[in-house]
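== Sequence and structure of one protein ==
=== Format: two labelled lines per protein ===
==== Data for this protein ====
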Amino acid sequence: MRSTSGLGWHLIRGWALLVYVFMFLPVAVVMLLSFNASQFGSFPMTGLSFRWFVELAENEAILRAFETSMILGLLTSIISTTLGVLASLALVRYRVPGANAISTLLIAPILVPEVVLAVALLLFLNFLGIHKSFALLLFGHVIFTLPFVILVVQARLVGIKREVEEAALSLGANPVQTFFQITLPLMLPAVLAGALFAFTISFDDITGTLFWKPGGVETIPTQIFAMLRNSISPEINALGTVMIVMTVGLPLLGAAVARRLAQRSGG
């Protein structure tokens, strides 16, 4: 009986390993081909080179798209994190009429397919006579990333005892001082995690961006999409490697920082 059970677990682990290999092997191939010295992405590789990364750094269109993605991601992260913290405080710490309905409404964008949300927002704003602009693009990214920040911050805020804040208030601190000196440091790991989530999601987004961006404005994902229409350039592999490193490395770095801050705060 034990041998049969052990064999079953080995089969499950082996199948899970095959699934992970199937999922991540294309990513590994893209990263490997980005260092291929040949212009043609094929095996066997003719040699290792940083040629395509150099050409990538000299491509003005990609540099403009990278700058746009960074600005958009940072603004989205700042706005979503600020609104997410304020909404979480209101819903967790105070009695707000219809709190459950408001919470559901704020988290609803996660449940709606992004293409549906993108089309709906575009049609609604066109109905109001608001045309495509960078502000519209930023507004759409905030709507899409805000629920992730709220979920992360709320989960942390629920675990912070209200008595700690009440103790600060009883010792003479006003609500603003209590928030910045007590509540914010305790919830800082979740705030940083939410900000990184918002930045990463905004930086990677393509579906909503294609609907919301004005003409002449390109982000990294839409620039890659435009480049793929013409031909598969080796620069795309290099750009994909840069995006993979950023979108994987930043959350890992954020998780490490959040864990360190949580340990220091005793949470």
Remarks:
- The longest helix spans residues 60-93.
- The two ends are 43 Å apart (CA to CA).
- The chain is about 80% helix and 0% strand.
